[in-house]
Amino acid sequence: MNQHFSKNRVEAFSDGIFAIIITLLVLEIKVPHIHEYNSTSELTKALISLLPKLIGWMISFFTVAVIWVNHHRIFGQFKHLDNGIFWWNALLLMWTSFIPFPTAVLGDYPNNLTSIILYGLVMSFMALSFTLMHKYALRNKNLLYDEIDLISFRKGTTYSFIFGPLMYLSGVFLGFIHPYLAFAVFLAIPVYFIFSENTK
Amino acid sequence: MNQHFSKNRVEAFSDGIFAIIITLLVLEIKVPHIHEYNSTSELTKALISLLPKLIGWMISFFTVAVIWVNHHRIFGQFKHLDNGIFWWNALLLMWTSFIPFPTAVLGDYPNNLTSIILYGLVMSFMALSFTLMHKYALRNKNLLYDEIDLISFRKGTTYSFIFGPLMYLSGVFLGFIHPYLAFAVFLAIPVYFIFSENTK
Amino acid sequence: MNQHFSKNRVEAFSDGIFAIIITLLVLEIKVPHIHEYNSTSELTKALISLLPKLIGWMISFFTVAVIWVNHHRIFGQFKHLDNGIFWWNALLLMWTSFIPFPTAVLGDYPNNLTSIILYGLVMSFMALSFTLMHKYALRNKNLLYDEIDLISFRKGTTYSFIFGPLMYLSGVFLGFIHPYLAFAVFLAIPVYFIFSENTK
Amino acid sequence: MNQHFSKNRVEAFSDGIFAIIITLLVLEIKVPHIHEYNSTSELTKALISLLPKLIGWMISFFTVAVIWVNHHRIFGQFKHLDNGIFWWNALLLMWTSFIPFPTAVLGDYPNNLTSIILYGLVMSFMALSFTLMHKYALRNKNLLYDEIDLISFRKGTTYSFIFGPLMYLSGVFLGFIHPYLAFAVFLAIPVYFIFSENTK
Q1: All structural domains of chain C with their residue ranges
Q2: Residues of A with CB below 8 A from D69's CB?
Q3: N or C: which end of chain A has fewer CB within 10 A?
Q4: Are C11 and C89 in contact (CB under 8 A)?
Q5: Residue of B19, B32, B69 with shortest CB distance to C20
Q6: Residue B44 carries which DSSP code?
Q7: What distance in Å separates the CA atoms of residue B69 and residue B112, rounded to the nearest whole number?
Q8: Under a CB-based contact definition with an 8 Å cutoff, are residues A15 and A97 in contact?
Q9: Rounded to an integer, what distance in angstroms lies between the CA atom of residue C176 and that of residue C191?
Q10: Residue D160's pLDDT band (cuts 50, 70, 90)
């Protein structure tokens, strides 16, 4: 039997999941209920009170976009996909598809340390799946394109992928001091990734 | 590391997002509750009262379809995708994936100026993302196919893409006079794009 | 500017929409609420009372699958896609993405003639979009592959595509006699298409 | 008319459906409502009480991933797709797209034998669709790639595909003794598939 996976189909399946998650995030933002239907000031006030949810949605949107970029980058170096890569990828997709839940919990309970810990832990597990997929690829070099520079590929692990889980955990720890510090870190992580990629 | 993005995957990811948004829009239209289950006149009346929501849904449907066409047109001229294009595209996708929210707000509060302003602003930001992506491509001509006529490409900016945000803002301003004027403009914009493309 | 559309992207966009619609249909079937959590007889009874909704879901599932097959068949004969085909296709997608709404109305009010008329009309408009797309292709033969037998292609119009709207309208008229007659026709149409294709 | 289906489009359509189902599963997990917004202990307790739902979600996630792998494996051996394969595939997709419903019922009524029977039956029907698709391919060998070893392909039927429905039915029967035995089997099936594939 064919041991390899069709890279096209695994990418299409993963892209579908990423696209759905990034789009579902907005469904958590519900139309506010106001009493005077035509009152502009009441509707404006109601919309402004949604601002924390909107910011949470933007953070999660760009976080999923960064996950997509990392996924695209690591898959761009695979010549073949075997069962191991497929199931590490499935683990990554599982944690990623879970993101709408901690995002919604954080949106409803932004000042509750438990929701900050939940968000940070889910993101750490997601980031850890990347690290494990990357480590697996390093132990199965026949999966990679021949021309890939293994030293810089290994460095990529140390910097980007171990960095990821650690950053999210540091956000959780700062949340013990003040919730806003955790928010700042959760926002800074995708922003850092976006700009570090743009200047490379 | 590979600096370029796989155009296929970015397009597949974007198409997935567009397809989901355009389909989610219909979920805002809820089955009406009537008291006499078998009364055809009561159900007919309830369905007719949904007409403003249905029109709003049709407008947003064709607006997203026009966004898809513009996306298809601009991406058709890219030979390569770099980080810049990717993140301007992510910004465009963010505003586009937000469209179900202002559409739902407008559907619930059609006579409220705040919901008209919200809808017009989100659409302007979406249209502005196109302008910025287009401007970025003009400053990075190596991303475009060699045979592209840069003068007509630059003209495309001036006409279609600066035009877009301005049209939505003019709809907002007309909304100050009467909500229906804003609706007329929001409907006219995709209709204009559909027919201007068909006669070209 | 490039007048033609990338067939791959239009198909991917359409397939995404079809896949989402066919999957969203199941969301209309809600978990029943029972009072005694561990009573198997109460849960069994509650599930059995969902049977009409389940049958409605199956009908709509196979109806969308048949739409996909017809879409696949007609697109398989296009060499190029122009603006006309794109917008007739957008109209088809609009009616198709609307299907979850009349399906839900019919599931909630199965004995109400209004919901039968709504379902039949939406399906007729959907089927009519196919007819119009097909007629447009016949007037723009340069869009079709050269080897296509135009006589059998035109016949295809007369039989499958004019047939479609008429069948749905006949279901509506039979609904005036008894709702179950309309259901039988709405079920018979996709079944007929499935088996007529299998025996060709 | 073209009797064959475009394998690319059928796969893209199927992948879209699989991606949506696997992502929708998480929507069943609702943000808990607590009374003291900032109480970490209350939110922690509420999240812990969601654990059975989370485990159910993980089981269904990996079950759909295993379905995807089996779909990928069987489609990898098809040279052509005809009407028969398409409609057996549609039947498989129908049962698969139904999975969120029995998963939600099982999550709400985990100790109710009826929900265990429902889950097991839906999974058996899903697995049976694979068996029937496989049997159809064996009777239409011209659909398979020439180099496929038919004896091992037939063996594949006996072991994996007849095995599937039987395993789910055995889970249902064990549920009559104790619900947890059924859960153990429903969890063991995807786990078995994942590791049996990894060691092959």
Answers
A1: 7-199
A2: 86
A3: C
A4: no
A5: B19
A6: H
A7: 31
A8: no
A9: 22
A10: low
